[in-house]
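A common beginner's mistake is to predict each chain separately and then try to dock the pieces by hand. The better habit, illustrated here, is to supply every component at once so that their relative placement is modeled jointly.
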Amino acid sequence: MLEEIKFYQTGSNTVGNRLLNPSMRTIQASGDRPNTLISGHRACQGCGEALGARYAIDAAMRATGGQLIVCNATGCLEVFSTPYPESAWRLPWIHSLFGNTAAVGSGIAAAAKVRAQRHGDQTVPRVIAQGGDGGTTDIGFGPLSGMFERNDDVLYICYDNQAYMNTGVQRSSATPPSARTATTMPIGAEPGADWGKGKNVPLIAMAHGIPYVATASVADLRDLERKVEKAMSFHGARYIQVLVPCPLGWGVKSQLTVTCARLACETGFYPIFEAEYGRVTGVRKIRQQQPVLNFLKVQRRFAHLTGKKADPKVLARVQAMCDENIKSFGLLGDDDPQPAPTAVQALERAERI
Amino acid sequence: MDNNQKGLEQIEGSLGVAKAVALARPGVVCAYPISPQTHIVENVGKFVKGGALKNCEFLNVESEFSAMSVAIGSSAGGARTYTATASQGLLYMVEGIYNASGLGLPIVMTVASRAIGAPINIWNDHSDSLSQRDSGWLQLFCESNQDAVDTHIMAFKIAETVGLPVMVCMDGFVLTHAFERLQLPSQEQVDAFLPEYQPREFLDPKEPISMGAMVDPDAFTEVRFLQQRKMVKALDVIEKVTKEYREITGSKSGGLLDCYNCDGADLKLIILGSTVGTAKDAIDELQAQGNKVGIISLKSFRPFPYEALRAAIGDTKNVVVVERAFSFGARGIIAPEVERACKGMGTHISTALCGLGGRAIYGTTIKDVVAYAQAGKFQEEFTWFDINSAVLNRYLKDSEGITLPDGPLAESQLCESVRKVLA
Amino acid sequence: MTTAEMLSLSAFLEGHFAQAFPSFGSERTGAPVVAYARIDDKEVRTHEPIREPDVVLVQDRTLLSAVDVFGGLKKDNGFVVINTEETPEQVAPELVKSLPQGHVLTLPATRFAMEKLGAPRPGAAMLAALAAATGVLKLESVQQSFQTRYPGKVGDANAETAKLAYDFVIEQKNK
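With all components supplied together, the output reads:
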């Protein structure tokens, strides 16, 4: 819907709120907004994760009429929101461990269902499990896959900032190649994170055949809200991975968080798509394609790719990766997504609705 | 009247425990297979699927770590929660175990006690459960399957009253796989004893709370103090709940500890778990020969009943703790606690280490321990009892050129054998 | 293990205290396994494995050459039941000499099971033979134990197998 609008604000590659009709505008502050993650928390300036979480959870609160429980993996979001005895959360919220959030979510969902049965309640509170990329794609991956496989009624949201930011910016399996982290320093023959490593958890989630998988970004909060609302319209396991730039870890100016996230999308660096029962159903098209250099050059973690001493071959390799994303996800043009092989579990789950 | 008419059942220990758990009407049960606890959760799963246990969610999870994590979520979500594990599985969920007690969640978990590898060994000893000594869970040991059935039902009430999780430790295979005569209480009795779970607080959209916040040095010590307070409270709660349960069901199970033949005994054995039954038979035979030995069955290892144990030992000066696990680089795990309980009483306390990795503790083993103690041979705190020197020597002779004598090996003999080689 | 369980259940049904447990191993199907059972008129408290049995049931005669199955057997009054088509003198001549007359008996338990049950599960026949030989159990209890544990066709077929074996042993005894 948004890509049809061809008016952009100068230099920002974004559609200005003022150019949209009121129903399409993003509302940042209003009296009736749930404000589930309320101000006063200790996130850094320009924190992409705080922004993403606030919009995602508020959208879920609206979608469930406030019948929502959240469990949170250890990580920045947990630490900055709940320094005892304070809490920035205005909903039932629990933090257990780093690697078990999906399973805790399964437990809460089971308890909510049983409590509703036993007390004759019509509404069963819904559950969101959330964590960063480390807690999701690495240490929490086993429980995540288990929750998907059982098709437990949990929406898992991964706030992907592509490294372990809470512990001081170490590499995770979501860290892109060549990126500088504390454990992949830009030194030696191949500076930054290794090529040929890492995993694509949205595609792995789709291979489980779960009802809904999506990627999103804080560059398009309206799209994020829509996806969360859509996710809450399904029962069973769902997964949303939101790209949330980390000013500290990426070396981005705090006022450029959203711009940086947008450039990740507009360059094909981070494909934004959604899938139902293992098949891609929608792709957020690139509106104004940019060379990946524009995305890389605003971040210090890629400074060794863009500076004077940079090896142009590596830059070409990153560009080729983006081009491949654009091609395989169909991020340009007007084509609909191509069907792909699907897990049989998906067919069974789709039928059971 | 035959046994069937008396409401008795001849069933496997695991099935008995599963029935006991079902009588407690849990809301969520999660399961991951590991020997020897599997039969318990298999049976609970059957009750749920077959409709005998209603309004209960049974989750097959992908690891013990997730089993404990699902239990954390469901308990925090306000449901009475049960799971079971053993050995490697217990260790695999350790991070969650500490988390559950820190969060004050009244989860009940069976530990079908089993040795820890390497070397891999599926048989019974207490090294798994005792490794969780400092985890903040209550740890209740069972001497028979009847004890296990009753203790599981009591465990829910104890956990929910205290606000801490409870491990019910029953010897793997020896109890879990033994078919014995069991008296299950009726559903009416259990309902009267253990009403529907009413959590004091839980994750409820109507009254939102935040659980699991980060606590900094300003308050962490105080949080730990309050947790320890709950443990102390648990001593009292265990006794009260046991009393109530016994009144309703007529059972003799539970309690902090149990004394057998203790009056006037000048030697007392402290034993945990299924060995107690074997030892009772053995000392009855000794009693018939005019040799009076008492047995203290230690039911509650955490909280440790220092005062009750001090009273149970009384003025007996000779105490041997039969231990089925030890602490590497140190000595027994239970004896030092007994030592604390008896401080200033002049009691001689020593450990007879036996029954590791499923080595059977026979009545003869117990009689040997008694004879050894009465001959004053437990000169040291720690003795490897029931050890086969021939097996040791097969290795030591070739590799280090030394041999060890037959019979029990005291700690000093081990130390000496090392010094000999170093010299 | 099922046989030990059924033995304990039969004794239970007669009002005794009983206990049964396997020798806990990681053996896979078909490997030699040992299971134990105790019967008493007071509570069975011990959980130690049995080293000096009153009775040994050998469900597979091929074990006789592989394992010391009679180790610890009480020589003055022990009983042995072996599942085989052969006679006691043929399969265990030494044992026959060392135990009282009639304390070693053999029966084609697997054949009886195949006949009635259609599966090589000699347990019911073995227990019935024990009942016939020693009188510690009634045939009816053995039958009832299988019918309780396996209600329906399987339990009934086991009960018929037990009857066949019981009559066989009684007939041998009266010869």
